[in-house]
Every structure is written in structure tokens, then in C-alpha cells.
Amino acid sequence: MSARILLADDHALVRETLTMFLATEGNFDVTSASTLDQALGAVRDQSPFDLALLDYNMPGMNGLEGLHQMISASAGKPVALLSGDASATIVDQAVAAGAAGFVSKTLGAKSMINAVQFMLSGEVYVPFNYVQQAATTIDGLTGRETQVLRCLAEGMSNKEIARQLDLQEVTIKLHVKTLSRKLGAKNRTHAAMIARDRNLL
Questions:
Q1: How far apart are CA 95 and CA 81, in angstroms?
Q2: Which residues of 47-69 are buried (b: 16+ CB within 10 A; e: fewer)?
Q3: What is the mean pLDDT of the chain?
Q4: Sheet of 101-104: strands edge to edge?
Q5: How confident is the model at residue 164, as a pLDDT?
């Protein structure tokens, strides 16, 4: 069964193009909306989608306020933002607020599908050009996050890390998301690479 995607964008051409592309190339079941209210209504009427993609600048969003509303309505399902242009600061704030990612509308076809699949798998997606702008040291990590990062660098899975640190696997997943955001990493492997490159471990 294909994943259900909610795509909300106030520009008809962008919305229709992305909807058609995700449906045909990604084989996703796509529902579209042109405002935040329509998107929230779709969630209420059809139950939470596997992933909601919201245009950062569309009517009703009010910056990250719309993101918070959709996250609350989505019962734990991932919610990501779409934008044609956004600063690294906005991207960081969105991820810190719980966004599953920040997808540029200028992404190529294959990259767009990969980004959606990445977020559907429970990871946080941030375009590499934003990652390059982010800089953080190990001082920004908590002691527990540092422990998890060391385990990641050793190639351990979430289940193995949970067993090693005597924590729940869901807790490890949260730590991985948080430390990846702090390091500006697009995934767990990238976080371990950054740690090694900066000699953080």
C-alpha cells in the first residue's frame, strides 16, 4: 500500500506539479490543499497522513505557528516544510520545533522522492547546502547525546545502542534526531562522519 502524502501549497502550478510528480514518480497517494486550514481539514476528515508537506509561506502559516498546528493534528506522523528560499536559521528553528525536514522546491526530481522517502522512514531531512551553513561543536551536545554519537560512530544500530545504554529504542531515536540537528547532519551516518571530521570523539 502506497504512503499517503498531504501536500499544501498556495501556488496552483507548484501544487499541481508536485502532486502529479509525487503520485507518478514516487507512487504515493497524494492529497493536495491550498491553505493551512484546508490541510488541517483534510487531516480531520481523512485521519493523519503518513507525511504532511506544508509550504512555509502559504496563507495561515504565520511562520512556524502553522507547523505547530499541523504537528498537533498529525498524531505523531511526520510534518515537513516546503520553501523556495529560506535561511539556515529558519531551517534550524523548524527542525528544532519538530519538523521532519525542510524541503526546497528547487530540489531535483530524484532528490525530492529521496527526501520524502527519507522522512517517511522516520529520519529528519535537511538539504546539504543548509547543512554546510550549520556549525556546532561537541559542547552543544548533552552527555547522553555524546554517548549516543560515539555509538553511532561505531556503526551501532538504535537497538544495539539502547541495549548498551539501557534505554528504550524510541529514546535513542530521539537522541539521534536531536544530535543530528545540533551537528547539522542529514542522517545518522552523516552525524558520525561530522564527528570524525571535526575530531569530536
A1: 9
A2: ebbbbbbbbbbbebbeebebbeb
A3: 86
A4: 29-33, 4-8, 51-55, 79-83, 101-104
A5: 86
Which of helix, strand or coil describes residue 41? helix
Q: Quick one: which of 77, 160, 176 has its CA closest to 119?
A: 77
Task: Answer for the pair 8, 38: CB distance below 8 angstroms, yes or no.
Answer: yes
Cα–Cα dist 13/116, whole Å: 20
C-alpha cell recorded at residue 79: 510534518
Quote the crossing angle between the two packed helices 12-24 and 109-120, to the nearest 10°. Answer: 70
Segment-wise mean pLDDT, segments of 10 residues, the chain, 201 residues? 92 92 92 96 94 93 92 95 78 87 84 91 79 50 82 89 88 90 88 78 61
Amino acid present at 132: Q
Query: How many angstroms separate the CA atoms of 155 and 13, rounded?
Result: 43
Torsion of CA 178, 128, 125, 32, to 10 degrees: 140
Q: Are 41 and 69 contacting, i.e. CB atoms less than 8 angstroms apart?
A: no
- Dump pLDDT digits (tens) for 103-143: 888 787 788 898 999 999 999 898 765 554 444 445 577 77
Query: Of 52, 53, 58, 94, which Cα lies nearest the Cα of 75?
Result: 52
SS (H, E, C) 15-80: HHHHHHHHHHCCCCEEEEECCHHHHHHHHHHHCCCCEEEEECCCCCCCCCHHHHHHHHHCCCCCEE
